[in-house]
Design brief:
By secondary structure, the chain is α/β, with parallel strands linked by helices. It is built from eleven helices and 17 strands. It is globular and about 65 Å long. The N and C termini lie close together (7 Å).
Amino acid sequence: MQIVSFSSQNIKISTIYSVEFVIQLIEYDLIPTDMNIVHSYDAFLFDCDGVVWRGNDQVPGASEVLKCLISLKKTVIFVTNNTSKTRTVYRKTFKSILDLDLSENQIYSAGIAAALYVKQSLKQGEKVFLIGSMGLSEIMEENDVEYIGQDCVLEGSYFTDFLDFVPENGIKYVVGAFDGYFNYSKMAKAFIYIKECGAEYIATNLDMNHSLNNSRMLPGTGAVLEGLSQSLGVQPKVLGKPSSLMFDMMCSDHDLENKGRVLMIGDSLQSDIQFGINSGIDTALVLSGITSKDTLLRETSIKPTFVINNILDLLK
């Protein structure tokens, strides 16, 4: 296993240790020099897709690593831009794939960030126009955020269909997320609410691509929202990664004041690593997901603190 530190340009070749041996070493302060990643941090923030699982399968060794960190009393938190699941559903997913029993405040998604962001300023009678999945709708409902927009799914439309369209009163936000049923009706209504009614345009994320089980790339949320953004001539306020908003939310629930003891682990330079940089914490890029070695060599503007092959390398 190789760990590359961009700050020092040193390469360390690690010995492979069992999880039990690692725990014993750390408990007795007998830390080999190449165990500094685990020893140097108190809190570990993990992306999900491509880092701890791919589809419905765990990344090899992920459960082992996460259980080891938890047994060592490390703070373990998961942060994802996927808006398709509520915290309740995510807890079941972590249990079924990784055999982990997590509390809700160990799970942060861009959808939850969006719901909490709009909820804090919505007054009685004010609503959200929603571009997103049924999962995001459920997140809004769980947080008592009133929304409209799901009725656009089956609508076909042309320019003239909107001559007599009357915008609904009280739409304060247009929230954009991944939407597999996105159509012209949703785009046009979102445009009107922002352009004519002054609704604030926010997005859960602007990830342009999504990796499907690490074998196929597909358009992501950024691709879905790009047409709306171009027609408006403005970009949305981003609430998910790489914005540091979710890190600020974590700080209100966890003791993350010492940023030098917090590490973000992810597979995307533009999303995960930039999120860590924006939040002022160290980062580790895994090559088990969306970023390949070739991509890493081409990208010079975003530099992770460490580069590792996969999550299991954290314990090697």
